[in-house]
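Lab notebook, bench 4. The sequencing result for the construct came back, and we need a structural model before the next group meeting so we can plan mutations. Quick request posted to the team channel:

Model the 3D structure of this chain.
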Amino acid sequence: MAEGTVSMAEVETSFQKFAVHGDTKATGKEMNGKNFAKMCKDCHIIDGKNVTTTDVDIVFSKVKAKSARVITFEQFNQALTELAPKRFKGKGKEEAVQQVYALIAGKDPANAGVTKVAKAAAVDRLTDSSKYTGSHKERFDDSGKGKGKAGREDIPDTSGYVAAYKGSGSYEEKVKNP
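Done. Here's the predicted structure in token form:
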């Protein structure tokens, strides 16, 4: 393939970043279908008109081995070669492939829609354990840390000591010598 303006090293770097995204066991040498679809979406290869998520899934299934669930960088290039003419209609195949590479080069996986921690006065007020009253107050120690099960339940003392027992000597002595 002609390299043109985009270096294959940049495309391969992006491939590796998307390949390991969301998978702690991934090595970066193989990409699964979910990450391939994410890369196509994040890099705007999927435009909703010419190339859809269905097209991306079909091309992924075509280029991977029959029993495999992942594609290598070579298969990835083959998949992009199939997607490029669909994405850039009216362009030559090589030119379309180069434009697809230009979309991918230097891109990282986006974390759109990641939940952020809410910082509001209302939340702080509701979660401040020093303001709790009644039985809820018993669930936290002075520092505000929860006591766990001890704060939720009355745990019986099974040590064998009887607090109200008033007598001289041990129980055995009284039973043996009435």
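The first strand starts at residue 31 and ends at 32.
Will bring this to the meeting.
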